[in-house]
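Bumping with the actual sequence this time:
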Amino acid sequence: MSLVNVNIAGGQSTGALVGILATGTVQTSYSSGSVANSFVTGGSFNALGGLVGVIGSTTTTATVTNSYSTANVTTSTGSQSVGGLVGYILGGSAATISYSYSSGTVTAPSGDNVGGFLGLKGAGTLTNNFWDTTTNPTIANAYSGSGGITVANNITGVTTANLMSFSTFSTAWGTTVSGANAISKTTSTGATAPTGFVWLILDNGTMPILEMEYNTNISTPHQLQLVSFASGQSYNVINNINLSGTTNASDVWGTTVASGAGFVPIANYSGIFNGGNFIINNLYINSSASNVGYLPMLPAIALSSKTLASLMKP
């Protein structure tokens, strides 16, 4: 499930994808945009997360795995549990969060239960998760109560640069084809779609992106970037695409106009790229290389109805 550029404001138990996940599994899902809430007097679970508000139940099992959020999470009211991915794991539950990360900013008043990845851990199991300490320089906790450290119970705080490094994830998540959480950095000039992995990453170019996001019918910014993994394939743009995330520090490019390289150009493209008369705007690339552009160099290919507006190139 992909939730792109959400703008969500709620009360208790608010998340971009799920408010309360009492049972079941959220997997290979992500959110971007902004998520906010306000304290509800008498509310059972005043919690806010970039993907899920509250997870767990004392009688059932709930799981979040192989998922991420780049959404910015904000509350202005106290007595809340606020986290980059999940707000609160219910006490006494058998909930699990694994092989996931968050990179969005987390903003909440002092006194709230605040963590870069998880607001409050009442119970549950955590395995090989990560959160961005660069976008959250004032947050010292992986989750509230973790003792002012960035690494706690398999939630590891790393810099944006490290979130964009294959080596951060290769051991923790694995690299074996068909592995349950496997990540690959291998791009291809062929036409075969990437397969056999859960995660794809352009080493030192992007944070991990889910393989399930890849599609030859392109509708999202991340799909435009994933063309790198099959640059001999043909693609169709099926709607206007806003690439403002290429200058949003929380998004997978980890870039602002003051720092970062932005979008990674699609090298060696040799397919047919049909823009469908749609507009791709706010593309940001900051490179000292030669032959720079969304498609740096075109051999004998067909380029149809492709429009780039508001191109930003320092």
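The tokens above came from a reply further down the thread. The first strand starts at residue 2 and ends at 10.
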